[in-house]
Amino acid sequence: MGDLPSPSTGLYNGVPHPALKSMKRTIRKNREFIGWGSASLIEFLISIGKDPSQACSLFDLNSIISEYITRNNLIDREKKKRVACDERLFSVLGKKVVNRTKIRDLLEPHLLASQDSSSEDELSDNSEESEGASNSRKRKRSRGLDKTNGTMGIKVAPRSCFASVVTQNIKLVYLKRSLVQKLSEDLDTFDDKVVGSFVRVKSDPNDYLQKNSHQLLQVTGIQKDSEAGDSCTGIILQLSNMSDGVQIRMLSDDDFTEEECEDLRQRVKDGQMKRLTTLYVEGKARVLHQDITCHWIERELALLQNLIDRASEKGWQREYPS
């Protein structure tokens, strides 16, 4: 492996690296950060030819690491989810062997924004209680987005900027049953795409407090039965606010209603679900955008073809009534 930049000097192959020498250095929780990321993460990105001057989201980093693992054949041949870290990857993840599903959790502490999220979250817990306080915080956040990190002009959105629980935002990370079934055909990317998204399931009939027939829930985990022949039936989704998992066939294939989104917003406000940050929603939406768009186009084309067939059939009947 080639020479890496030194965290204390910013040298790369003995020469000050331009992406390092002008980036602000900070210390958080006994970890040194260069600009938006930790020193070890920035060094890793430079060593594989990535430009660290542009801040990466957690999902972008996860994709970069996954690509690096595949390119360097670090996946265990017997256990596909196990990764044997080489020297470069070990410098970031801190483990010789890791599970692919845990990589995102190991990468989160390397983002500077994640270090300040806990204290900022506490200050913003009651943001929806007062309209005046909410507007004041929004103005502060908008000013914070304009601040640059270091002298290179890297804009980093604070991790504690919460995303509004509204229909437009939830649609970006909402998966219908048919789309989840299609995603299950590729188990290597299934976890990264589905975990953290929202699905629609039937409400418990014994829950007299639930006014809607269905409710929106977030996928928190996935269990797979290796003995099951069909990949769909062998997958159990763990959902928020539900003790038992559900199979993919139990998901709804329709759009959710505004009332169901309002119910989700109330559960988040009551603390029954973790609040979504704009950083998380943007990253998740970027991962799912192509799949959701292609799935919508396919369904619209099928509906259009059905309408054409029906119109043609009615036309034939009028032309030849006998």
Describe the fold and architecture:
This is Plus3 domain-containing protein. It comes from Papaver atlanticum. GO terms for molecular function: DNA binding. The protein has about 325 residues and is an alpha+beta fold. It contains 13 helices and 13 strands. The protein has helices spanning about 20, 40-45, 60-70, 85-95, 105, 110-115, 115-125, 130-145, 165-170, 175-185, 185-195, 260-270, 280-320, and strands spanning about 10, 15, 25-30, 30-35, 35-40, 80-85, 95-100, 150, 155, 200, 215-225, 235-240, 245. It has a 4-stranded antiparallel β-sheet with strand order 10-11-12-13. A 3-stranded antiparallel β-sheet has the order 3-4-5. The longest helix is centred in the last third of the chain and has 42 residues, at about 280-320. Residues about 1-15, about 120-130 and about 145-155 have low confidence and may be disordered.
What is the gist of this entry?
This protein has helices spanning 18-21, 39-47, 58-71, 87-93, 103-107, 112-115, 117-123, 131-146, 167-171, 177-183, 187-194, 258-269, 278-319; strands spanning 11-12, 15-16, 25-28, 31-34, 37-38, 82-84, 97-99, 148-149, 154-155, 198-202, 214-224, 235-239, 246-247.
What's the helix and strand layout?
Elements: E1 11-12, E2 15-16, H1 18-21, E3 25-28, E4 31-34, E5 37-38, H2 39-47, H3 58-71, E6 82-84, H4 87-93, E7 97-99, H5 103-107, H6 112-115, H7 117-123, H8 131-146, E8 148-149, E9 154-155, H9 167-171, H10 177-183, H11 187-194, E10 198-202, E11 214-224, E12 235-239, E13 246-247, H12 258-269, H13 278-319
Antiparallel strand pairs: 1-2, 3-4, 4-5, 6-7, 8-9, 10-11, 11-12, 12-13
Helix pairs in contact: 2-4
